[in-house]
Amino acid sequence: MIDVDNFKAVNDTYGHQAGDETLRLIVRGIIDCIRSSDILIRYGGDEFLLFFPSIPSDIFASRLEEIRRRMESITVPGCPNFKPTVSIGGVYGAHPLADAIHRADLKMYDAKHERNHVSVSILLPPPHNGILM
Length: 133
Fold this sequence. Notes:
Elements: E1 2-4, H1 7-14, H2 16-33, E2 39-44, E3 47-51, H3 57-71, E4 86-92, H4 97-114, E5 118-122
Parallel strand pairs: 4-5
Antiparallel strand pairs: 1-3, 1-4, 2-3
Helix pairs in contact: 1-2, 2-3
């Protein structure tokens, strides 16, 4: 889950047109970092869900960090004192959709405490025999 930090301040300070442009630039930046098979969904307001089908676990967190860093290079026209940043909560592993979204949301709030941060959980399924070591 990706959340734009301080997004309300953009709308309040520069207007909703600037907020809309900020979201467009952020989406473009995310798209520049993902594969054509990945799925980006606007979840609401300034929150986005991103699904990485078949991404290796060792690339998952680094891809999210790449997205976070990419946001730092965005300049929003007409917003001289605003640099977009995002907080990202990621959950890796095969889980029911509602559970995965809930867990990603919790990780995103962990990340928001740091601002402009990525917080990730790698959740591996238990072995077939039910024994976890």
